[in-house]
Amino acid sequence: MTRKRLGHAAFQVVFWLVVAIILFYVLFPFYWAVKTSLTPAGELARTALDWFPDRPVLSNYLEVFRIQPFGRNLVNSLMVAVGTVLVSLLLSAPAAYALGKFRFLGKRPLMYVILAVSVFPQIAVLPGLYAMVKWFHLYNTWGALILSYLIFTLPFTVWTLTIFVRQIPSELEEAAVIDGASPLGTLFRVLLPVMTPALVTTGLLAFINAWNEFLFALTFTSDNSARTVPVAIGSFTGASQHESPFTLIMAASVVVTVPLIALVLIFQRKIVEGLTAGAVKG
């Protein structure tokens, strides 16, 4: 009995040690970004290895919005990310319903095609997307970014929602058909309420991907009228002669990370439900 207790205690120690290492690995970069953003630019080299600045300041955050229309960049990122999520979910929900519940010729090859699109590197599709953007006269607009971001958000949302739809009990769909509901009526009135956790999870992950995307935003925008925050942060290098670009970059990074953390905290219950999707009881 004593040996069993010792083994359990050793397991607990190892478990919490691993948890502590993982938390340190995940949280330390964000902590260091916050610490650097609060350090006066002139003291960064001297206090680089300190755990916290002696005289924390907020001037770096003010400088971010002074030398760059960063508020406009935040609005651009928000509108593009929200638009990408809405279009992705609007298109992927019916597609997932069809792929998850109906049988038709070419279903499996179609799934493989969707998966294949998601594994292409961004640089491989960049020339074709650039031609499309110029042809539709969307260059330097939100539409150009939303159109390009769908390349990597749609395959992800379709696959994730298809897996969830397959696990929804068929009795729900059959009951709706008996009541006279059409396929679209079944989708919007019966299945979508059940799919809410999966929609929130996939939508939030698609939002984060669109919020952080850099290559397409750099290629398809030319000024701050449509430029998003990742590209704007890159422009801080050498933007000011009085402040350290590194402290500005860290301050801007903290500003754009806080909304993502807030979204995860707000929807954490739905995210957990979405990640454990499939436990739907009829």
Mean pLDDT: 82
CATH topology of the largest domain: MetI-like fold
CATH class wording of the largest domain? Mainly Alpha
Q: What profile does the largest beta sheet have?
A: none
What coarse outline follows from CA principal-axis ratios?
globular
Proportion of β residues? under 5%
Could you tell me the number of beta strands? 0
Throw out a few tags for this protein:
mainly alpha; globular; MetI-like fold; 282 residues; 2 domains
Task: Characterise the protein shown here.
The two termini are 44 Å apart. Helix 9 packs across helix 13. The longest helix has 36 residues, at 2-37. 29% of the residues are buried. This protein has two domains: 2-59; 69-235, MetI-like fold (Orthogonal Bundle). With 282 residues, the protein is mainly α. The protein has 13 helices and no strands. Residues 278-282 have low confidence and may be disordered. The protein is 74% helix and 0% strand. The radius of gyration is 24 Å and the shape is globular.
Q: What would a concise description of this structure say?
A:
It contains 13 helices and no strands.
